Amino acid sequence: MFEEDLDVRIWNIRKALNLKQYEIAPMVNKSRPAYNQMEGGKYEPTFETISKYASDLNVNLYYLMFGEGAMFIEPAFADSLNTFTKNAVDDDEVRDFFYQFVSSKLVQKFILSQYKDFMLQNKDKVLRQTKKAEKPSKGGSKKKR
Questions:
Q1: What pLDDT does residue 19 have?
Q2: Which fold has domain 6-133?
Q3: Which of 14, 44, 57, 100 is within CB 3.0–4.6 Å of 1 for a Cys-Cys bond?
């Protein structure tokens, strides 16, 4: 789907979590045989599967798609991503986009190359926004001693 070694990254994620295939498969809504095929490169993950990696396992989507960056994201950032992902999965327009994305390797390569270029060009801005999002709000609760 994204690159030839997506299956290797999926395997690496499972190993980093210290899980067996039968343990991780239900976490990403797959049967054990389907998960085995996905990890073996014979089956490409759907948008829903990729979303489960991000929302439930805190996997960095940039790592999953491109093999770059940290394998996992911080829990505070993951909470924000979970909210976005849950909202996005219910949006028909987003589902249609991902259907088109999954259906065409040409579309995949074009969009992912554009996304990668954008992320590389805006790395500092994205990092600043991420750090800003991770700071506790002024009205938030303080640590108890």
A1: 94
A2: 434 Repressor (Amino-terminal Domain) (1.10.260)
A3: 44
